[in-house]
Write a structure and sequence with these properties.
The complex is a heterodimer of chains A (926) and B (472).
Chain A lengths: L1 E7 L2 E7 L5 H8 L18 E4 L2 E4 L12 E3 L12 H8 L9 H14 L5 H7 L10 H17 L26 H6 L14 E7 L5 E7 L1 H5 L3 E6 L8 E2 L6 E2 L7 E2 L5 E7 L2 H10 L1 E6 L6 H4 L13 E9 L2 H7 L2 E9 L11 E6 L5 E5 L4 H12 L6 E4 L16 H11 L3 E4 L2 H7 L5 E10 L5 E13 L5 H10 L9 E10 L13 H19 L3 H8 L19 H15 L9 E3 L2 E16 L9 E9 L3 E6 L8 H13 L6 E5 L16 H28 L7 E3 L2 E4 L2 E4 H10 L5 E7 L16 E13 L5 E11 L6 H20 L5 E2 L2 E2 L18 E7 L21 H13 L10 H12 L1
Parallel strand pairs in A: 1-5, 6-19, 17-18, 21-22, 26-27, 33-36
Antiparallel strand pairs in A: 1-2, 3-4, 3-5, 6-12, 7-11, 7-13, 8-12, 9-10, 14-22, 15-20, 16-17, 16-19, 20-21, 23-24, 24-32, 25-26, 25-31, 28-29, 29-30, 32-33, 34-35
Helix pairs in contact in A: 2-5, 11-12, 14-15, 15-22, 18-19, 21-22
Chain B lengths: L3 E4 L3 H11 L3 E4 L5 H6 L8 E4 L9 E3 L4 E4 L5 H5 L2 H6 L1 H9 L3 H4 L4 H7 L7 H6 L3 E6 L2 E6 H4 E3 L2 E2 L6 E8 L5 E9 L7 E12 L2 E10 L6 E2 L1 H7 L6 H14 L10 H21 L26 E4 L5 E5 L2 E5 L7 H8 L18 E4 L2 E4 L12 E3 L12 H8 L9 H14 L5 H7 L11 H16 L1
Parallel strand pairs in B: 1-3, 2-3, 16-20
Antiparallel strand pairs in B: 1-15, 4-5, 5-10, 6-7, 6-10, 8-9, 11-12, 12-13, 13-14, 16-17, 18-19, 18-20
The chains are: A alpha+beta (926), B alpha+beta (472).
């Protein structure tokens, strides 16, 4: 054995090697760097190319010992900090990789070329790649890719996808299409979790703490166990693995055991499986539990005070989040006017129509199979496995249709409990939450208090913005750190502000946990800043629209986190389009003046205005990726597979459209299979308006690559260049001949090629707060005008008309887009006017749906005008970015601003209190 | 929830059962309050339900020779709201019935049930007190009659004895020289419980008030009169000044509390506001102007479909025989469940969804004998001898119902969980009103909640379905 010491991809390596070992073998077998492939092993194909001291060598026949003391670079070392090398990116985008086996060699050879010739001609490229073979025949795309990479390296030119030949833009994308699962949904054939049953299935039920804070001192389940029909009664002592779950911080016990603390009324103490729900409920009543009650803290500001009762041993502060930009003191000094106010928003409830349900069973091979309408199937799998002390792959999570989520189905609900009971009893177990239990248990929207201080020049320019936020994250972290992070960065609005200081405190309390909810903290932030902007405009005597336009983020602006916005900033267009529409409705009359209503002397009408921005994707340094699989099946059907949630937003439609677009297949020849961890790769969480962008891109790349493979197969058979082959309506056009895709699939199989591509898509890298670099890879923008009618006597407010413009980059699924905006608008109206989840001293008042006043059809405005603004992103699918959350955000502040315009009363607490408003109006009238 | 469920075919059978079981029994009519109370554990010891909803003629609304209106115990809110007699001669009651709950609730809930629940926020009590209503209580022993104001003794308290039932409600029909109106303030238009409400019935002689009844709901433990305002109005003409003064006097009768629906101060202030508005409308004789000419009831059967022979479910001794979507079913288990659970668990018809199990969201809407109802509030045995239609039965052969078609085409479906309930309500509406206006669509769908779509596309889908149906 000989000692080999060398530097591989920047790391010192020392390995013992046999005499005569070749570099490729050492890399693959001894160092596990299997990216380098061996194809011919005879210096013929170039597939094994790596760089030794920056020169390309064929590693299959390069004696390893020759690399002693040298720098070796392999395909694994090309990407840096999680960012693809421009060559890698270009190979992906230009479809230069098909089967992928030669790709590392092609890319390494090209890398060597670019070091020597940074700006190679096509001749240079062809010369350099002369001995690097590709059997799929992707050469034109490879040349294209290398040119594009060179342009990006030398000139910063973004790498574009190839343009398709469809006339009038995309054939499928942007067209109005039918939602594929709609027929099932309107015929009652659609299956949700509670629609799944097994003949010998047991019903599970959960004993809840019922007190907001205390220590379990005694727990006796004997009587419950003896009740006929009861098959299992389990407590914390029965959890074989990790007791705590949590998406970011594992601080939430699946069951609270004796000696442990309950931290909110919904904490689970024991679970029961019984023949019927009635028996299960009776069994719960027979469980004896005693608590030592502890003092309760329910206000986030109080939770931060010294001496406040501790929710968790480590203290009540979950996270202090900070942003500093410029010099805040100097910014206020430069200001002619300084304004400050505090806005508070209550806890809000998702109120998805389908309450949580989990069905679990043990399969014949001893695994756990779990059905649950989940927003994050893979996180469920990990958390259930950890609790049961299993490997993740011993759990199969399957999502049937999900009856709404809005962020409320990201955390664990009954998943772990159902799995525990199924394992304990050996029978399938269903846990369906009643609405009452659903309201008690799942995480809510953070109640938030935001203090905003603005420094302004007389002409309206912002010189400084300081905000302080307190977010009530409740008993457990859930996504609290992330939600309040987004609240932080969005709290100075989509404006150019040179000097910014933000302090945000995410506080634990004994309220129900708060987590993800449409808008994800940015909704609360938007409300505060947008109310303040109207107050500032009035103080300065400026038109609120013009004032916002003056300060609005635009291309090349720098955000409050120092991010340079290089593209896709459509805010100004949103503002312009909404203003124009609003002025049209008033025939040019001042929209923000109070108007009388004919025949109703006690009514006033006025418009209100607000804008919003919202990041797409996880951002702030969280690795954001999705893996998709696209396969062509016999019969010419394509199936796209990914674990991402269809929660009503239309993801199935979007992925079907993308697959159809890329493969040139009719929509009805594309199937989408979502959320089965055995069959579909991980698409990541359905959160942060990210699915169209991230999972959409994963499916797009996979489908695109599959198309290239089909083209390559045909190219070889018909001896035509692959780029001359077109795919139209399920047929491949090869010269004058039309080949059905079914034949192409058969041909590929004949040749031993599997007509399937798995693609792992990584979104552009982002960086956490406090570090240099972009916090998010894309933002959506919106402007909103809302006309309200106020009853001066009763304080009743009705929304008459709304106009919303949203910059989503590119509308992929117009009906889905419209649905998201309309639905989001109504939710915004609810947040402003009716909704409030009421908790008193940790005890939930809103424990029935009747007590949560969500908007009904009567709240639908006469008109919801939806305007699409398309400022494409270079990386998003066809230029697209997110829409799911932003549609709700500007609605509440636009209503509050409209009320002020109608009557001169400024509301600083949501929801708008009809009672308070009526009494204020009365005072004013006197 | 119940051990025995009885469906008698005449009143004597019902009263005999009540006499036998006493506190262990409860009369059930619509069950919209009782089922919730039982689920919440508020009716301990009640093991027997006596369903009077299949007894012929208990839903009659009659005018006698002395101009008294008589309501049977099975008069539902929808029946009263749609009754020409009630609208013309007891308008405040019609208005109050129309404000109750959602169509699916109004199809089941009864006025008599409202009186028995006796919540100060129950809408129908306020106008009945203003109209001077009396209730007739019957037991196997006999009958007695009480003024309604005496029948109700406190918050959710009344004089009903265990062996008695409310057999009739009667009050003098309003005459030509009388005007009356009901006014309600709630916090959400649909399904809202009153923050407060007011009813006024005034008698005029040549423009001068000769008699006044003004009653207030949700501002005291029971419905109260506003005696000072009533006395003040007598002998006056309804000038703006008089109205203002009377409204101020009405405030004095209010003794409200702070609760989560409203503060005492707001309620007190609002008594003045709505008294002014109500008296103003009465002065102008426009009390009827907002009452819809054609009410979407979501029911194609206005009267009881009586049972031919009684059906007593004592324990699980009897099978529920019913027809669902045109097919006969026989259930030997599940009689203790709600209709929703019977459909989902016993019939395996999972298209009907449970969203709240409290009659609030409408996801479980099905047709029971032609009327849209919340199946989560219907006891399963009620299906015996009845006809049920669920979402699975909406298709006409292989053809989707027009509302199913347009819900798809107009993208009125998102997560889909509320969709079956909306479709059932919408299809029934179109059966009743083939070309509904937007107001009627909103009225009809007011009991169905959707958290995804924002309703806008749903309304459009119903409009489009109406057009499609009319074009054939």
């Amino acid at each position: 054995m000989t000692k080999l010491t060398f530097i591989v991809n920047g790391e010192h390596k020392q390995v013992e090697i046999e005499p005569g070992e070749m570099l490729a073998e050492v890399l693959r077998k001894r160092l596990g760097l299997t990216g380098t492939k061996i194809s011919c092993d005879e210096l013929e194909c170039g597939v094994c190319t790596v760089l030794v001291d920056d020169l390309p060598v064929l590693s299959c026949n390069y004696p390893a010992i020759k690399a002693n003391g040298k720098h070796v670079t392999t395909i694994e070392g090309l990407a840096s900090d999680g960012n693809l090398h421009p060559l890698q990116e270009a190979f992906v985008k230009k479809g230069a990789t098909q089967c992928g086996f030669c790709t590392p060699g092609q890319i390494m050879t090209a890398a060597a070329l670019l070091k020597e010739h940074p700006d190679p001609t096509i001749d240079d490229i062809e010369y350099a790649l002369n001995d690097t073979l590709c059997r799929c025949g992707a050469y034109p795309a490879i040349v294209d890719a290398i040119r594009a990479a060179s342009d990006k390296i030398n000139h910063g030119t973004p790498i574009e996808y190839p343009q398709y030949e469809f006339e009038g833009g995309h054939k499928v994308i942007g067209q109005v299409v039918k939602r594929p699962e709609a027929v099932d949904k309107v015929t009652g054939a659609a299956i949700y979790t509670d629609d799944i049953s097994f003949p010998d299935m047991l019903i599970g039920a959960t004993l809840r703490a019922g007190i907001p804070h205390g220590r379990v001192t005694r727990l006796d389940t004997t009587a419950a166990e003896k009740l006929p029909g009861v098959h299992a009664v389990l407590t914390a002592a029965d959890i074989p693995g990790r007791v705590n779950h949590g998406l970011v911080i594992q601080d939430w016990p699946a069951l609270v055991g004796v000696g442990e603390k309950v931290r909110y009324v919904g904490d689970a103490i024991a679970i029961v499986a019984a023949d019927t729900e009635d028996i299960a409920r009776q069994a719960l009543d027979l469980i004896e539990v005693e608590f030592e009650q502890l003092p309760v803290v329910t206000d986030p500001v109080e939770a931060k005070l010294d001496g406040a009762p501790l929710v968790h041993q480590e203290g009540n502060l979950l996270k202090h989040i900070k942003v500093d930009k410029g010099d805040i003191a100097a910014g206020f000094e430069q200001a002619d006017v300084i304004m400050e106010d505090i806005y508070t928003m209550p806890t809000y409830e998702h109120a998805f129509m389908e309450p949580e349900c989990s069905v679990a069973r043990v399969t014949e091979d001893g695994r756990i199979e779990l059905w649950v309408g989940s927003q994050i199937p893979y996180a469920d799998r990990e958390q259930v496995a950890a609790a049961l002390d299993l490997q993740p792959q011993e759990v199969r999570v399957r999502s049937p249709l999900t009856g709404g989520g809005f962020g409320g189905k990201e955390d664990i609900a009954g998943q772990i409990h159902a799995a525990m009971l199924a394992r304990s009893t050996g029978r399938p177990v269903k846990i369906l939450y009643s609405r009452h239990e659903s309201l008690l248990v799942h995480p809510k929207r953070h109640a938030t208090r935001i203090k905003v201080t603005l420094g302004l020049k007389k002409d309206g320019r912002l010189t400084a913005a300081q905000t302080e936020l307190f977010g009530d994250t409740g008993a457990y972290a859930s996504l609290g750190t992330k939600v309040m992070g987004r609240a932080t960065t969005h709290s100075t609005g989509p404006y150019i502000v040179p000097n910014v200081k933000i302090d945000c405190y995410a506080m634990y309390t004994n309220n129900p946990p708060a987590g993800a909810f449409r808008g994800f903290g940015a909704l609360q932030a938007c409300h505060a800043i947008e109310c303040m902007m109207d107050q500032a405009a009035e103080r300065l005597g400026l038109d609120p629209v013009e004032f916002r336009r003056m300060n609005a983020l635009r291309e090349n602006s720098i955000t409050n986190t120092g991010q340079h916005l290089t593209e896709s900033v459509g805010l100004l267009e949103c503002i312009d389009r909404v203003e124009a529409e609003m002025l049209q409705s008033t025939n040019g009359a001042a929209p923000f003046a109070a108007r009388e209503v004919k025949g109703q002397p006690n009514k006033r009408r006025a418009w209100g205005f607000a804008v919003a921005f919202k990041n797409t994707g996880l951002g702030e340094g969280a690795p954001d990726k999705a893996t998709a699989e696209v396969e062509l099946l016999d019969g010419g059907i394509a199936e796209a597979r990914i674990s991402s949630a269809e929660i009503g937003q239309g993801l199935v439609t979007v992925l079907q459209m993308i697959t159809s677009q890329e493969l040139g297949l009719p929509l009805d020849q594309v199937r989408v299979l979502l959320s089965d961890t055995d069959l579909t790769p991980d698409g990541g969480p359905t959160t942060g308006s990210r699915q169209t962008y991230i999972s959409g891109n994963a499916v797009r790349h996979a489908a695109n690559s599959l198309r290239e493979q089909m083209a390559a197969t045909l190219a070889e058979k018909f001896d035509v260049p692959p780029d001359e082959i077109k795919f139209i309506e399920g047929l491949a056009q090869v010269r004058e001949e039309m080949v059905p895709v079914t034949d192409v699939v058969a041909l590929m199989k004949q040749e031993g090629k599997e007509p399937k591509v798995v693609y792992e898509y990584w979104a552009p890298k982002t960086f956490p707060l406090g570090e240099e670099g972009d916090k998010h890879f894309a933002y959506s923008f919106a402007a909103q005008a809302t006309e309200i009618e106020l009853d001066l006597d009763t304080g009743e407010v009705a929304v008459i008309r709304t106009i919303g413009a949203t910059d989503v980059g590119k509308v992929i699924n117009p009906l889905g887009f419209q649905g998201q905006v309309e639905g989001g608008t109504i939710m915004g109206i609810g947040h402003a006017l009716t909704e409030e989840f009421i908790i008193e001293d940790g005890i939930i008042f809103t424990d029935y749906l009747a007590r949560y006043r969500m908007p009904s059809i009567h709240h639908t405005p006469r008109e919801i005008k939806v305007i699409a603004v398309e400022h494409p992103t270079s990386e998003g699918p066809y230029g697209g970015k997110g829409v799911g959350e932003i549609s709700t955000m500007p609605v509440p502040p636009s209503i509050v601003n409209a009320i002020y315009n109608a009557c001169g009363i400024r509301i600083k607490t949501l929801p708008i209190d009809q009672d308070w408003l009526a009494l204020e109006l009365r005072k004013k009238a006197k | 929830m119940w051990k025995n469920y009885y469906q008698p075919v005449d009143l004597d059978q019902a009263l005999a059962l009540l006499a036998e079981k006493q506190e262990a029994a409860r009369i059930i009519a619509g069950g919209t309050d009782l089922i919730l109370e039982m689920e919440a554990g508020l009716r301990p010891g009640v093991e027997n339900l006596i369903d009077i909803s299949r007894i012929e003629c208990l839903d009659e609304i009659q005018l006698d020779e002395e101009d008294f209106i008589h309501l049977g115990p099975m008069v539902t809110h929808n029946l009263a709201a749609a009754s020409k007699l009630i609208v013309e001669q007891a308008l405040p009651l019609a208005q109050a019935c129309w404000e109750v709950g959602a169509p699916q609730i109004r199809n089941r809930g009864t006025i008599a049930g409202n009186l028995i629940t006796a919540s100060p926020a129950n809408d129908t009590i306020t106008p009945l007190v203003a109209l001077g209503a009396r209730v007739t209580l019957r037991s196997a022993q006999g009958a007695r009659q009480l003024p309604l104001s005496e029948f109700i003794t406190g918050v959710r308290k009344n004089q009903l004895r265990p062996d008695e039932m409310v057999a009739e409600i009667s009050f003098p029909a309003m005459r030509n020289n009388q005007r009356g109106m009901f006014y309600k303030v709630g916090l959400r238009k649909a399904q809202a419980i009153s923050v407060l409400n007011l009813a006024a019935v005034l008698t005029f002689e040549e423009g001068t008030v000769t008699k006044a009844a003004i009653t207030l709901g949700a501002v005291a433990p029971t419905i109260v009169h506003a005696p000072e305002a009533e006395a003040y109005l007598v002998g006056k003409q309804l000038t703006p000044e008089v109205i203002g003064e009377a409204a101020d006097l009405a405030v004095k009768a209010a003794n409200p509390i702070d609760d989560l629906r409203g503060t005492a101060a707001y309620r007190r202030y609002m008594v003045g506001v709505i008294a002014r508005r109500t008296l103003g409308r009465l002065a102008d004789d426009v009390q009827n102007e907002n009452y819809p000419a054609k009410l979407p009831l979501l029911s194609s059967r206005q009267r009881i479909l009586p049972l031919i022979e009684e059906a007593d479910f004592e324990g699980g001794n009897k099978a529920i025989e019913t027809v669902i979507n045109g097919k006969p079913y026989r259930f030997t288990t599940g009689f203790e469940k709600t209709l929703l659970d019977l459909l989902r668990e016993e019939a395996q018809l999972t298209g009907t969804k449970e969203g709240c199990a409290e009659g609030e969201c409408g996801a479980c809407t099905v047709y029971l004998d032609g009327a849209a109802v919340m199946s989560c509030l219907v006891p399963a045995p009620r299906a015996h001898g009845a006809e049920i239609v669920t979402i699975e039965g909406l298709k006409q052969g292989d053809q989707l119902h027009p509302v199913q078609q347009t819900f798809i085409e107009d993208a009125a479906v998102q997560c889909g969980y509320c969709t079956p309930g909306f479709l059932m309500s919408a299809a029934k509406l179109l059966e009743e009103i083939p070309a509904p206006n937007r107001e009627q669509i909103q009225q009809a769908l007011t009991g169905n909640l959707c958290r995804c779509t924002g309703y806008y596309k749903i309304i459009k889908a119903v409009e489009d379905a109406a057009k499609r149906r009319q074009m054939g």
